[in-house]
Give the backbone structure.
Amino acid sequence: PKGKGPQGKRITLKVAKNSVRVAFNGRRRLDLSKMGIATFPKCILELADVEELDLSRNMLKKIPNIIEKFQNLMWLDLHSNQLDELPAAIGTLRNLTYLNLCNNKLKSLPEELTLLRGLRTLNLGLNCLETIPTTLGTLRELIELGLFDNALTIIPKSVKKLPKLEKLNVKRNPLPEFAEEEEPIDTVKRIESLYLVEKKDLCGSCLQTCQGERDELHKLEDMTPGPSNKPSFPSLVTPNSTARDNQEEWRMK
């Protein structure tokens, strides 16, 4: 189709201007998400005064250093592209409070990322990170940090102890400290109360339930052999008439 090729869709300045929206917070957002862009469109430098930029869900493999022209940016969304690195110029966007880099191919982070001291939300999930710099702990305004679905084997203490951090997602990483021990399978069904009632005193639905539970118990006995010496309870007798009279009260409880 026209306008498409190996380099993806071509974005013109007119298209970019028509993609500027005013967000609910009053900021101007340039929304170029899901546009089939494979190369950073230089024409958007004409709109570098926007406060928010959305380039998510495209085919971008590189963000050039000219990103530094967007000095007003407070919100930058680059998730679901094909980025394998970030430019050092990312550190010049000192007004950023939100940065989403989720679902890319990042293998490392530039040291300059730690210059974004105003960041409150940083999403690095679904990448190829094996380590994160300890200097990430200098981002003391961070409230949310996503590190899920990477190849991390350690989280620096400086990151875990960030003073304002409320949400730290490290799921699905090969982290020994977060490895969950497998719980032993308990084949015995636990109960809180045991009532002894004669079979003839049970109503139809209760009898059916008891029979079902008995069948399940027999299955468990087949699966887990019991001890050879069965305990005996010679003093245990069947319910007397008093128990039979009080069974309605037991059912209510």
Summary: The radius of gyration is 31 Å.
